[in-house]
Design a protein that fits this description.
mainly beta; OB fold (Dihydrolipoamide Acetyltransferase, E2P); 5-stranded mixed barrel; 1 helix; 6 strands
Length: 115
């Protein structure tokens, strides 16, 4: 059996593009590694062919640029996110767990909330 280093991934693509509303903001947190991450939850309406509703997606802002933008956002802002889907592993209640999130490469506010 070939190891993962022997797999040709030259055609692989992991690109996410979202446009939606900010529904929650986590304060920046410093991890034990010293890295800082700022979390934003973005809600996006589902396409017409799917059941009506929305998807709430967690966005992780690791770079200084995306953290800076995230720090100026407010709940209700409409945002555009370009990034990649990541699976994050952690422990919850002593048991292993995982979740998917979008790692933002670029984050920008499209419009402020309607007054």
């Amino acid at each position: 059996m070939a190891g993962s280093a022997d797999v040709d991934r030259s055609g692989d693509v992991n690109t996410v593009h979202l446009v939606g509303r900010v529904t929650s903001l986590d304060p920046p947190r410093t991890l034990p590694s010293g890295d800082v991450v700022h979390g934003v939850r973005v809600t996006v309406g589902r396409e017409a062919r799917a059941r009506p509703g929305v998807d709430a997606l967690d966005v992780a802002c690791w770079s200084a640029a995306t953290r800076r933008v995230a720090g100026r956002l407010e709940v209700g802002d409409r945002v555009e996110v370009d990034g990649s889907l990541r699976r994050r592993f952690f422990r919850a209640g002593g048991a292993p767990a995982s979740r998917y999130e979008v790692e933002a490469r670029r984050l920008r506010r499209v419009s402020a909330p309607a007054s």
